[in-house]
Amino acid sequence: MAPPLSRRTLLQAAAVAAAAPAVSYAAGGLPASAAAVPAAWSAVPFALDAVALRPGVFADKRQLMLDHARGYDENRLLQVFRANAGLDTGGAVAPGGWEGLDGEANGNLRGHYTGHFLTMLAQAYASTGEEVFGAKIRTMVGALTDVREALRHEPTVSGVAGVLGGRAAENERGSYQYMELPADVLGNASAVTLSAWVRPTHQDTWARVFDFGNDTTRYLYLVARNASGVPRFAITTGGAGAEQGLDGTAALPLDQWSHLAVTIADGTGILYVNGTAVARNSAMSLTPAALGTLAHHWLGRSHYTADPVFAGAFGGFDVWSRALSAAEIAGLQSARAGGDLVSYAFDETSGSGFADGSGRGLDASLRRTWGGPSHPGFLAAYPETQFILLESMTGSDYTKVWAPYYTAHKILRGLLDAYRATGDERALDLASGMGDWMYSRLSVLPAATLQRMWGIFSSGEFGGIVEAVCDLHELTDRAEHLALARLFDLDSLIDACAANTDTLNGLHANQHIPIFTGLVRLYDATGEDRYLTAAKNFWAMVVPHRMYGIGGTSTTEFWKARDAIAGTISTTTAESCCAYNMLKLSRALFFHEQDPAYMDYYERALYNQVLGSKQDRADAEKPLVTYFIGLTPGHVRDYTPKQGTTCCEGTGMESATKYQDSVYFAAADGSALYVNLYSPSTLTWAEKGITVSQTTAYPAEQGSTLRIAGNARAAFALRLRVPVWATAGFRVTVNGRAVPGTPVPGSYFAVPRTWRSGDIVRVSIPFRLRVEKALDDPSVQALFYGPVNLVGRDPATEYLELGLYRNAGLSGDLLPSLTPVPGAPLHFTLDGTEFAPFSEGTEDPTHAYFRRSEPTVVFGGVDSGVADPVRSDGGSLLDEVWAGAPFHDKGALVARVRSVADAWVADGLLDGTDGDRIVATAREASYAR
Fold first, then answer.
1. Distance from CA of residue 804 to its chain's centroid?
2. Which residues 6+ apart lie within 8 Å of 205 measured at CB?
């Protein structure tokens, strides 16, 4: 394999890598043909290293995540992979949570977080060039290469220091390894002694030291811990209910050697622990001879499939064809003595077998419970079992199968990102192998089976695997990789969305959002219109119909009915992964159609939910990112959600290392530069030979300054996004001269020019305070100042009731009703409550929504004493008056008040006298502009 490319070579490849479809990296050493811009794109992104963040909120948040990435030991993430392959884990401790065997659903999602972490490292390396990130990537890719190679072969002995000066065979928890003994181990004995040295490393119950039997009816076993936590031996010919047993009296200590022995003779069974008899059963009539010929003789594995594999070390196992005396058992504590039926010392240091020292030649073999991969490209942190079970499932059960193709996607995505960032061919080889393996599994399944699988909640979730496989195909040009991407088509969903039929009610949100980003990429690869049409229609079903003010979507992870916003607010709204994936989809759609709505949404979700989901402090152990963002009154964000290593913490790590990926796009033909976000940054546009530097404190500053530098004259149109909320004006100057034209909110304002070094563009975007009403309850509102969602900081658990019209200005701006907090940009007070940007990652109780309450009609602080009347649709007289803003002068406002009051009087909604009082109040009051 080719060695990793140098950083210099990678940087020289930046222009090529800028066309990479997912996240654009600085590098990868990719051939131009492999990274060509899809023909369907009319706008293209820049490489991450082509856009440098300058000081500001994004750089500050990113720094916190970079510090986490630098300090976190990647070997902890690799532990579950190495364990699954039977490799030495080096004593690393798995992260736990969703990445551990003790996590939710038995750790059935483990491995996903490693993929997220790889992507974070790749983005961090591409953005900063810091070798610490490159080194971590190479460590992880190298380890995963070793893991895949190990999985291709029978497991090998992991020898460790044993007992009585000997060696021992380590069985790492999560390896799913056991020892298979030959059939004649028990020798049809009518009296027997079974002896084992064990060092358990986990307190699993029912993990077998040995289990000899046919099934769950006829067997004998010894466990280190039963349900009561003590050793148990049992023998039966009639299943669990007919067991003749021996139970210990105390738990075996973890990480210490213990000796267990069982003797059976003359109807009596005795259990010994460390040479001491702890249980006696004088009614034990069964012996090995009574069991007859048995099919399986296992050390470390149970015939009950739900039981765990023994985790720990075996220091010796012996079987005698007689019952040893108590003195003989005691003697085994200080000296080895081999059994006459079988004797394993576990002295081996390599290979997959264990020699029998009894002279009978009954050598044992190390095995995996699941056998091994169906294809040499298989790579995972758990057995292939979940993928197999999914193919026959008809309903969801994440305790058995939890989104295995979702986890495969995360690993695949991380490998592709690692390859693009470093050029390490091993990463691409691993990714290509995964594609080959998935194709080998899925291509032989009937279409109906695939449709059933992908329609199963949770178990059938496959995340963004279609996008990743399309990116893989773009690198390999292998037909089967494109065919694989199409095998994930969920036709019922695609067809409904292509027909613009909204069927989202009741669907799991994050299971489905990334599907559509994949469909956009399939459109790029195939040209099939239904893919792109479905994605565009789907986006419009979410925005605004299932979107909260911060840009998030979903409640308790699911979608409800269209336009149900206030009615779905809970403590588990706005799963953070959903915002991450909606941003990816918006970005992908923009490449095809430069609809400003996509970037208006991008700004909303990025500046509010995404920034606000990251806590504003550093932590070496946790990325400190939310899972849900509750929007109920007084909700406090949880930055250490669930058990840890969740999907949202994974996407949070990614988001915080690619804040700059959509600040600028270029027209595919180089004719325009799109400035999508006003963010302090510097763009290096290599093709034009220029840099574009943005200097701004936005959104604390209401505008931005762009400076052009370089040696070349560059002709292109600078397309500046005019935010949809920018109704107070949008002004542009170049070198101090106003640019003619009429910017329209929700569009791009073009400044075509042959640009020269030193040109300065000033963009002014005056903010206004405004409200956004919940679609299903206009009295429930969110407060915005420009792009910023202002949240009330108050512990109350009921909606705050706020009035905002009392000091509204002639422009319609509600800001005069609030009082700025000195020295705290974007902080205000109203009625004693502080309002602050949602983006601030604090643990303050917040109110993202409030209840609008205008008890009386007030203008310019003057109260008319007349109750503000309300129509049946929830709209009030004041709403209708101010809907006519801006007003060029006070007289225009008074005329509007007169007109509205007369209409309400005519409709019988307002008394004529009250109407006159309202008009008189409007005439009396003074107004801010």
1. 39
2. 223, 225, 226, 227, 229
